[in-house]
Hints:
Catalytic activity: N-(5-phospho-beta-D-ribosyl)anthranilate = 1-(2-carboxyphenylamino)-1-deoxy-D-ribulose 5-phosphate
Distance between the termini: 15 Å
Keywords: Amino-acid biosynthesis, Aromatic amino acid biosynthesis, Isomerase, Tryptophan biosynthesis
Order of helices and strands: EHEHEHEHEHEEHEEEH
Radius of gyration: 16 Å
Strand order of the largest sheet: 7-6-5-4-3-2-1-8
Bound molecules: ligand LARABZUK
Number of strands: 10
Largest sheet: 8 strands, parallel
Shape: globular
Low-confidence stretches: none
Family: Belongs to the TrpF family.
CATH class: Alpha Beta
Pathway: Amino-acid biosynthesis; L-tryptophan biosynthesis; L-tryptophan from chorismate: step 3/5
GO molecular function: phosphoribosylanthranilate isomerase activity
Amino acid sequence: xxxxxxxxxxxxxxxxxxxxxxxxxxxxxxxxxxxxxxxxxxxxxxxxxxxxxxxxxxxxxxxxxxxxxxxxxxxxxxxxxxxxxxxxxxxxxxxxxxxxxxxxxxxxxxxxxxxxxxxxxxxxxxxxxxxxxxxxxxxxxxxxxxxxxxxxxxxxxxxxxxxxxxxxxxxxxxxxxxxxxxxxxxxxxxxxxxxxxxxxxxxxxxxxxxxxxxxxxxxx
Length: 220
Ligand SMILES: O=C(O)c1ccccc1NCC(=O)[C@H](O)[C@H](O)COP(=O)(O)O
C-alpha cells in the first residue's frame, strides 16, 4: 500500500518549506486569512511557492474568498490546489473550480454524526475533501485550532472523492488516527508548531515519519 500522504498547513518561511519537503510531505499549505497567525501576504506566498521543490504541491487556503481575491491570488502565486475553508456552498465550489481551473479541496467540519452527510454533498463537486474538526462557534479561526473530533465517526466510511483527515493531529496521535479511520492522507498545522504560527522542523519530520509508518486497516 502506498505511503500515507501528508499535508503540512500554515507554512510561513523558507525553512518551513525545506522542513516539509525534506520530511517527505506531499502538500504544503499557505493560509490567507488575516486573523490567523499563519496568514501570508501574496508577495510572501509567491516567494515561498517559487522556493518549493516540484514534489511539494502548493495549496492555498482561503475562507469565503470572492472572485477578485482569487483572481489576484492565482495571478500572483503559482499554485497546485485551492482549499476552501469557509462556508462556501457546493454551487460556489463548482464555480471556483470552473473559473480558476485548479483542483479544489473543500473543508468539512465534523462534530457529530449529523455532520457526515455534508461530506457526500461536497464530494459531488470538489476534487478532494478535508475532513476537519468543526470549530467552536466562538472560535476566531475556522480551522487550525488543534482541535480533534471523534475519529470513529469516519472509520470505515467511503466517499466518491479522495479525502484527508485533519484536526488536532500530532506526531503522537497520527498513527492511531490512520489505523482507526483508514485515512490515506492527513493534514496538520498546530501539532507541528512550537508556538502558534511557528513551525518546528523536528515535529514536522516526526509527524511525516509517524504518518508514513502507520498502517491503515483495510476495510471491505
Ligand atoms: O491555520 C489557520 O490559521 C487557519 C485559518 C483559517 C482557516 C483554516 C486554518 N487552518 C486549517 C488547517 O490548518 C488545517 O487544514 C486543519 O484545520 C488542521 O489544523 P490543526 O488542527 O491545527 O492541525
